[in-house]
Amino acid sequence: xxxxxxxxxxxxxxxxxxxxxxxxxxxxxxxxxxxxxxxxxxxxxxxxxxxxxxxxxxxxxxxxxxxxxxxxxxxxxxxxxxxxxxxxxxxxxxxxxxxxxxxxxxxxxxxxxxxxxxxxxxxxxxxxxxxxxxxxxxxxxxxxxxxxxxxxxxxxxxxxxxxxxxxxxxxxxxxxxxxxxxxxxxxxxxxxxxxxxxxxxxxxxxxxxxxxxxxxxxxxxxxxxxxxxxxxxxxxxxxxxxxxxxxxxxxxxxxxxxxxxxxxxxxxxxxxxxxxxxxxxxxxxxxxxxxxxxxxxxxxxxxxxxxxxxxxxxxxxxxxxxxxxxxxxxxxxxxxxxxxxxxxxxxxxxxxxxxxxxxxxx
Length: 362
Prior knowledge:
By secondary structure, this protein is α/β, with parallel strands linked by helices. The chain contains 14 helices and twelve strands. The protein has a six-stranded mixed sheet with strand order 2-4-1-5-6-7, sandwiched between helices. Strands 3-9-8 form a three-stranded mixed sheet, with helices on both faces. A three-stranded antiparallel sheet has the order 11-10-12. Helix 1 runs parallel beside helix 8 and helix 4 packs antiparallel against helix 5. The longest helix is centred in the middle third of the chain and has 33 residues. The radius of gyration is 23 Å and the shape is flat.
């Protein structure tokens, strides 16, 4: 799964990306410093993995991970190709979710492409470009479908054409993003295949001054408009300082001095993970304790397929217990004695925190 980091130029996208991935992507004070997208894979922090490792004492511990893509800054007119806009918009189409970085900090030495700080205006500028790009894409799709429908009036084409027309009305007339459209069951596959920019889930990351990580009027205004769960305040410059510290002890002391329980980066990674509607299950034994990523609602055979296709093809059952039950019992033996260790079949929906042993035969 990929999260694309977007926003206007000079809002701190590349600085944040560098902190996340420990890569040294260019982060200079001029527009379009980033042209080709930088991609980095990041481990998802999960304290449960450490606890499992203490219980099983494995040879190897493997966390789950996700990808972040640093996409160049957009400017007004991007949907028409301004500022290499078409190229950048194509990069956005390739990701699963958006991390929209919004500049809240003041700094006379860092130029703002719009002249002055106005976070809600800046968000609207980006969202308008995504909206206009989607409308243009839908209009082109509509033209092709109308031509096809004239020569072949089948039900599938009619369903797809109606969907396109409904979406154009939503985006153009109501000025609402595609994520607010609820497709009918027969429309779902066509909706997914459109890969609309405004259909992607979005987390608004407010890049703040170091002294105002959690307390600015601008951040409250963004929360009021988009919802508190969709907004995450972070100081990219502060996070850059934390990543430069050598040890975890130094980092924790630094956070404690700032009255913070964990780094903004950890919160961002976790928020991005849940933004994508993902959960974690675990496999555990003496050889390896490992975390695996699946979408919420995944059934046991499909989860087994994440490990190996043979596991899914020859699925017999899943031997399952929850991490919370293991934490209480402290061993698989005690779990079995308490009746918390169970077998589940093909229709079982894997839950976040499940520890699973898959039985299969091929």
